[in-house]
Design brief:
10 strands, 42% helix, 310 residues, four-stranded parallel beta sheet, alpha/beta, elongated, single chain, 13% strand, 14 helices, Rossmann fold
């Protein structure tokens, strides 16, 4: 992202360990109109900066927030921040006991370039193409998806193909994913993708599965909506708060193996209506996640922060 920020005229300083007593941070704080922190891991900086400059804190994490809250390191910075935002209601529920005025600020993205309905690739014999995009780690739940796939009867499993993409973050889970993909011909691990390859892979899918055990609002779920793909997810994924089951997505309640199996079966059953669900998904993207709406909300919030209103 450094190049993109610099192209917009931003000065980018990279510090792997930005301690609160760094001189350049004090220099910046004394001159800034507003400060912006973008992760719960910025707690110490928010605590230090809030007394010097109106500070906005955008929170996304779930289990990491709970861990730091239990350690007692979040109450003070949350109290001092001028504005506190959450990426979804799942995150806001955790923040609200500390800041009742936390605002859910949905992400805004440019839509994925228009893609036509997928035509199954040569040799796939018309199978339903399902993609999972995300780093291989327990939180992302790739093991749940693979175990759910294994629960299907062979006839149903033969009707689909599951493609997993992502960085190999957790070695133990990566080994399990590779083992399962070797065992089941209906699943494949296709590696890490750059931005262009990601868009190409997404365009080749019929459905995007978010198998996460917990996730605020993964960007791939929003990209899936903008591309008119059928989104498969559970209520453990914050994006689901903006969606209606069977209308613009297929949604199960719990993130477990049985739910993954049900999502696979439902994706097969609703395949004839995929275009209608995809069109509704695009409409939901336009209504909730457009970049224009996000920019408007963000500018309003910065104005409130500078005026010290809560």
């Amino acid at each position: 992202m450094r190049v993109e920020f610099e192209q917009l005229g931003a000065l980018v300083l990279i510090d792997l360990l930005p301690g609160r007593n760094r001189p350049y941070l004090h220099w910046l704080a004394e001159r800034a109109e507003v400060a912006f922190a973008n992760t719960v891991l910025s707690a110490s900086l928010v605590d230090a900066w809030a007394a010097r400059v109106p500070t906005c804190w955008y929170l996304h994490e779930l289990s990491a927030f709970e861990t730091l809250a239990a350690a007692g390191v979040l109450a003070n910075p949350l109290a001092g921040a001028a504005r506190v935002w959450a990426g979804s209601e799942l995150c806001a529920r955790l923040v609200r006991p500390y800041r009742a005025d936390v605002m859910v600020l949905p992400y805004g993205l440019e839509p994925i370039q228009e893609v036509s309905p997928n035509r199954s690739s040569e040799g796939e014999e018309g199978r339903l193409q399902i993609g999972i995009f995300g780093s291989i780690e327990p939180r992302k739940g790739q093991d749940l998806a693979l175990d759910g796939l294994a629960m299907l009867d062979p006839a149903d499993r033969a009707k689909l193909r599951l493609h997993l993409y992502g960085r190999q973050f957790d070695r133990e889970l990566t080994n399990y994913v590779l083992q399962q993909c070797d065992t089941m011909p209906e699943a494949s691990f296709d590696g890490e993708l750059d931005a262009a390859s990601y868009r190409t892979a997404l365009a080749r899918t019929d459905c995007i599965l978010i198998s996460s055990r917990e996730d605020t609002a993964p960007l791939v779920s929003i990209d899936a909506l903008s591309a008119g793909r059928v989104l498969l997810l559970t209520r453990a994924v914050g994006t689901s708060a903006w969606l209606s089951d069977g209308i613009d997505a297929l949604i199960e309640e719990q993130a477990d193996v049985s739910a993954m199996a049900r999502l696979f079966r439902r994706a097969l059953a609703t395949r004839p209506y995929g275009a209608e669900i995809g069109a509704a998904a695009k409409a939901s993207f336009d209504a909730n996640f457009s970049l224009t709406a996000f920019a408007t909300r963000l500018n309003d919030e910065f104005a409130l922060a500078k005026s010290h209103r809560r």
